[in-house]
Amino acid sequence: MPGAVNQRYMLDTNVVSHIMQGRDAPLLARLGALVVGQVVISSVTLAELEYGIHRKAGAAGLRNALTQLLQRVDVLPWDEKVATVYGELCATLESQGINLSDFDMMIAAHAIATGATLVSRDKAFQQVPQHRLQLQVW
């Protein structure tokens, strides 16, 4: 169920990939229920998507899907505030024996720093304490 209009959702790379494939009707319907500005992606997610597209031969369909998506979502820059949250988050989680991939850690820090709810189907994010990262699985 979509949240309040002021709630911002940051889509993880795996959710964006599902959107770009266009075959997940419940996910697409959920996105359609949100207003413009509520859905964002991290510049880290964009980098992962670009990497994936450049690795695949004949990725014109994926390029088109990404172009369409970028017309509907904002890409948030990874800035100093995010870098500060990232450093603290990595150190804290590492001391607790929690390890995520570098990109996942960067995306989690980005969601935390911007106050966004991270939307992901990646179980790795469930390791981050809920009081730190607001997470939803769509």
Question: Can you give me a brief rundown of this structure?
Answer:
This protein is an alpha/beta fold. It has six helices and five strands. The chain has a five-stranded parallel beta sheet with strand order 3-2-1-4-5.
Strand content: 5-15%
Q: Can you tell me the residue ranges where pLDDT is under 50 for at least 5 consecutive residues?
A: none
Strand order of the largest sheet: 3-2-1-4-5
Tally of distinct domains: 1
Q: What would the CATH topology be?
A: Rossmann fold
Give the structural class.
alpha/beta
Number of helices: 6
N- and C-termini, Cα separation: 10 Å
Give the strand tally. 5
What's the CATH class label? Alpha Beta
Order of helices and strands: EHHEHHEHHEE
Report the CATH superfamily.
Answer: 5'-nuclease
Please tell me the overall pLDDT.
93
CATH architecture heading: 3-Layer(aba) Sandwich
Radius of gyration of CA atoms, rounded to a whole number:
15 Å
Helical percentage: 40-55%
Major sheet details: 5 strands, parallel
Shape descriptor reads globular
